[in-house]
From TrEMBL, chain A:
It comes from Acetobacterium bakii. Keywords: ATP-binding, Nucleotide-binding, Transport. Residues 4-222 form the ABC transporter domain. It holds the Pfam family ABC_tran. One of its GO terms (cellular component) is membrane protein complex. The keyword Lyase does not apply. One of its GO terms (molecular function) is ATP binding. Belongs to the ABC transporter superfamily. InterPro entries: AAA+_ATPase, ABC_transporter-like_ATP-bd, ABC_transporter-like_CS, MacB-like_ATP-bd, P-loop_NTPase. Gene3D superfamilies: P-loop containing nucleotide triphosphate hydrolases. SUPFAM superfamilies: P-loop containing nucleoside triphosphate hydrolases. This is ABC transporter ATP-binding protein.
UniProtKB/TrEMBL annotation, chain B:
InterPro entries: BphY/WalK/GraS-like, HATPase_C_sf, HATPase_dom, His_kinase_dom, HisK_dim/P_dom, HisK_dim/P_sf, Sig_transdc_His_kin-like_C. Its EC number is 2.7.13.3. This is histidine kinase. It is found in: Membrane. Its main location: membrane. Pfam families: HATPase_c, HisKA. The chain crosses the membrane at residues 5-23, 29-47. SMART domains: HATPase_c, HisKA. It catalyses: ATP + protein L-histidine = ADP + protein N-phospho-L-histidine. Keywords: Kinase, Membrane, Phosphoprotein, Transferase, Transmembrane, Transmembrane helix, Two-component regulatory system.
Length: 222, 337
């Protein structure tokens, strides 16, 4: 069953002679429960693609469908709610809120949505990601690996259907990368979620179910 | 029910108020006006109440209908539910949609497991065919023809090796199928990893000695880890067996254990032929064999089995390799969960 599908997605910046083709016709489909890695050199368009998938940016041409719903047809307000409820993001630079402690950071998207956090579930995630004991600490006192684990916990807490990760281990050393990725893989399998991950690290891409390579805005294998 | 009681209480209060007015002031005009005002207020109250009731009833009706969709497994219409609003209904719908997705995913998963079991069975019958046919031919030859003793012994020897192959094949098949069918439950216990490693290494010392490959193990005497000793040893043995198989004479194998923050990493490095990067994912597939290694005996099940065992314990395997220089397999086992 397909959860995510793009059809001939193009993204051009500028026009005429200055036209930059960040994405040049990408057809991609992701199955439910799949762990997909998108690899490519910097400037190949992989981050742009991820932004399109998450509805953070609008394609110049083509369509992005998540669960049969076309993102470009949604109103701005609907899109915001859609992102909040259906998609979890993990960024390279963690994007945690420094004024909040670990637990508050994790439940932030839930509370923004007006839900009472499911305490049992959230604590399950905290245990799984080895964050027990750090709940009341502020995030800037944590190591990079720990901060990224908090970001992963935050992405998992709202039980989204898809997690989009943009270089989730880009700021971590290779040892921590392997640990964080192992945990990320295990938790998405456990909670039946789909993960689309961008990386330029082939070693880490090994953990994916499928690897696609992107070059000059096109998928060149996979 | 509660609403009706409130309404009744309000009505009784009004009647009391009217009789109080009438008895105290004996003024019919004042009483009539107050009766009218009270009746108007009562009517408003009634309207308000019935409206709230209707809203609540509609709300529950909608939940009921949407749950019916879930009950009838009409996933199409569930997907069309409106869940992109800031209302409570939308939030409930959102959860219904997610439940439907999870149910669908689980159904798909069990279908997939069934498929993989079927493909396993067809793989087994396919793999067993070759040694079986060979054995039949050899048997026939030995039975029906007058053969010189030397030739006969040679044929018997070949037959023996085919039997070995069949035996090996069947043992691995039984292991895999039991693991796949979920008949084997891995039991994780707090045990010393050192002993598990020792068990795995002891299985390959003979073939390693034959090729003069020393195996160096770097592990603390006491390394407690939550794992299934028997099956983990099996997985590690499979990785080490490959290391010996694909390494040249007089090379060395290095096994080292490092305890990380969340995982314990077991590295198994050889100086063998190496694996091209494009095949990193493929080597763990069932019955996959490298083109270049067809000459070496094997059926391509060892690494597959190893990965299954490690994954069932929430761990994972990675490989890193340089062609012609050797490969390092890293087995990661979680420290705590």
């Amino acid at each position: 069953m397909k959860i995510l599908e793009t059809k001939n997605v193009k993204k051009y910046y500028g026009n005429g002679d200055n036209c930059v083709k960040a994405l040049d016709g990408v057809d991609l489909s992701v199955d439910k429960g799949e762990l997909l890695a998108i690899v490519g050199t910097s400037g190949s368009g992989k981050s742009t693609l991820l932004h399109m998938l998450g509805g953070l940016d609008i394609p110049t041409e083509g369509s992005v469908m998540i669960n049969g719903k076309e993102l470009s047809k949604m109103k701005e307000e609907q899109l915001t709610i859609f992102r909040r409820r259906q998609i979890g993001f993990v960024f390279q630079n963690y994007n945690l809120v420094p004024m909040l402690n670990v637990y508050e950071n994790i439940v932030l998207p839930l509370e923004l949505d007006g839900n009472k956090p499911d305490r049992k579930y959230v604590h399950g995630i905290i245990d799984l990601l080895h964050l027990k004991g750090t709940e009341t600490r502020f995030t800037n006192g944590l190591s990079g690996g720990q901060q990224q684990r908090v970001a992963i916990a935050r992405a998992l807490a709202s039980k989204p259907a898809i997690i989009l990760a943009d270089e989730p281990t880009g700021n971590l050393d290779s040892k921590t990368s392997q640990e964080v990725l192992g945990l990320l893989k295990m938790s998405i399998k456990k909670f039946g979620q789909t993960l689309v991950m961008i990386t330029h690290n082939n070693e880490i891409a090994q953990l994916a179910d499928r690897i696609i390579r992107i070059e000059d805005g096109r998928i060149c294998e996979g | 029910m509660k609403n009706k009681m409130i309404f009744l209480a309000a009505a009784i209060c009004c009647i009391g108020y009217w009789s109080y007015l009438f008895l105290c002031f004996h003024n019919p005009v004042l009483t009539a006006v107050s009766v009218l005002v009270c009746l108007f207020l009562l009517w408003l109250l009634y309207l308000q109440m019935s409206r709230t009731e209707r809203i609540v009833a509609d709300f529950f009706e909608e939940i009921n209908q949407n749950l019916d969709l879930l009950f009838n497994k009409s996933y199409e219409s569930i997907n069309n539910l409106n869940f992109l609003e800031e209302t409570l209904m939308a939030r409930i719908n959102q959860k219904i949609v997610r439940i439907a997705e999870i149910l669908a995913a689980e159904r798909k998963k069990s279908a997939k497991e069934k498929m993989s079991l079927q493909s396993l069975i067809s793989d087994i019958s396919h793999q067993v065919k070759t040694p079986m046919t060979n054995l039949k031919m050899l048997h026939e030859t030995i039975q029906h023809r007058d053969l010189p003793d030397a030739k006969r012994t040679e044929l018997l020897k070949t037959m023996g090796s085919q039997l070995d192959k069949l035996d090996f094949l069947l043992t691995s098949m039984v292991k895999t199928s039991r693991l796949e069918a979920g008949l084997i439950q891995l039991k994780k216990e707090e045990k010393n990893l050192f002993n598990t490693l020792a068990a795995a290494v002891s299985g390959i010392t003979v073939p390693a000695d034959k090729k003069n490959i020393p195996i160096e193990v770097f592990c603390q005497d006491q390394c407690l880890l939550n794992h299934d000793p028997k099956w983990t040893a099996e997985a590690l043995f499979n990785v080490m067996e490959n290391a010996v198989k694909y390494s040249p004479q007089n090379s060395r194998i290095r096994v080292s254990v490092e305890k990380w923050e969340m995982y314990t990493k077991i590295n198994i490095s050889d100086q063998g032929r190496g694996i091209p990067e494009a095949h990193y994912g493929k080597i763990f597939q069932r019955f996959y064999r490298e083109e270049s290694s067809q000459a070496i005996e094997g059926i391509g099940i060892g690494l597959y089995l190893a990965r299954e065992i490690i994954q069932k314990q929430n761990g994972y395997i990675m490989v890193q390799s340089v062609i012609g220089k050797g490969s390092t397999f890293s087995v990661f086992l979680p420290n705590a969960f």
